[in-house]
Amino acid sequence: MTPELLSALAAPLPPGRLITSDEGDGDITALWLSDGAVPAETWKRIRDQHPHTGVWPLLLDALDPNAAEFRPWGCGEVFPERMSSPADHDPADLLEQWWATYTAHDEDDDMLDIKRRLAVTAPFGQAWPGLAPGREAVADPDELASEFAPTFLVDRPRTRLGLIAAGSGATALTAAGWFGPCNYDNDTAKISAVLQDWEHRFGARVVAAGFDTLHLSIAAPPVSEQDALLVAAEHFALCPDNIWQGCRPYTLAAYAERITGAHRWDFWWD
Fold it and tell me: For the whole model, what pTM was predicted?
């Protein structure tokens, strides 16, 4: 992110500052961050300018939105230098590899024995079912994202605006050096690769991110039981905590019911 890119925006920005990576000791100016909350209209205006400016807006939440450091964004707890490129990764391969890791029997796991572990991912068990088919969007993905943004801000009124030089919301996470899923994978480019694929298959748009959370609008959600199960399997592979530590019952089938027809996907990594 550079002052030159910011100056290309058609209207003045609210008060804010450029954030340098690695808690201020890095070599990359990772993003611009507003000093306070902004209206959804500001986010939409900047996103609409993206084809001309190359600046992508994200709504940014914090571990503690009341704290002055506004982790991870305000204190520069971001690490773009450590990331590869999303183009280096095949999303189907990534999801299959993660699925194999999270469904494997772990003899040191005192929480789930093999029987209960396989019950979580029934009816697939340990067998990777493959990618869910894409669907035609029932609404314009960008317009749906614009409708989601104000709803998100109602729930999190201290959310700030982040601006990143990136081609989309999916790649903005890598460009900004977001480290949210680091307890599972510390290369956010892999997450971005999957999200880019979801942009094409499900009309996904990355609207907001927090310390270890991610929030997407979805223009083409699954509507059948089988498709929802396949999408749920992809969610489990990307973010197993959505099922392991989500809502009861902690099963893929129950999760699939919750996302059937849903135009919002939320993720949280412990």
Answer: 0.95
